[in-house]
Amino acid sequence: MWNLIGIFAWLIVLALLIFVVLNIRGRHLRQLVYRQKKISAGILAIDFAEMIALIAVVVGMLYVSFFTKVDTKSSSNYAITYKYEPLRVETDATGKGYYVKIDGDKSSNIDVYKYRVDDSNYSVSSQYATLSDATMPLNVPRVAMKWNKKDISKYDNKYTRAYVITGQARYKKNFINGLGMNAGKLASEYRVIRVPDRSFIKTDNK
Question: What's the pTM?
Answer without folding.
Answer: 0.76
